[in-house]
Please model this.
Amino acid sequence: MGVAANQLFFFNGLSLTSPIDASIIITAVPVLVLVFSAFMLKERITLIKLIGIALGAIGAVLLILYGKKAGGTSSILGNVFVFINTCAYALYLVLVKPLMKKYNPITIISWAFLFGFLFMFPIGINDLLSTDFAAFTSKTYLTVAFVILGTTFLTYLFNIYALSKVAPSVTGSYIYLQPVVSFIMVAIYAFVLNFDEYAQDIGFVKIFSCLLVVAGVYLISKKAKIPII
Model:
């Protein structure tokens, strides 16, 4: 759920559909985590969490719709793949939570990646063997290293550590920060690195969306005493 299904369906889905569609679908993670947690871990769904999810979802969708002008064509199959990826990741967050009571984060992430490798190997070995490594530049190697260490290993490790401290619904809610981080990076490229084409991507709607996202994450992280379920 956490490595093989998550990554395979995401990248295959992204290759078939628009990045905008994929970004919007991914924001369903916190909602799915809350649902899975309620049924599997008996976690109580509070009114404050639902309000936080609603705010975060509105902000993320607004930010994506106004903030991304990427190419690509939407497709039903691609959207379905990304949605399966979202379900797999949400279920992973819920399933791994009970393990935190018995094992430390390094142990869990080691086994997760080991089994992820075993599932991925027969599917990805042909693509690996057909890769033209001679065409790689220094920038390519640095990018691959960042994807492996930054967006994969460290991301999963910090996620596991966070699960040892907070509920899965709180961990899942931080998915809403992805479009916010994208917005910040665009701002840096526009006003610090002087990429003029990025300056046109910044406006009131995006700033307002960022505030909604931050407010949503704060509310979901906040302890409340008004249960709905």
In short: The radius of gyration is 19 Å. The mean pLDDT is 77.
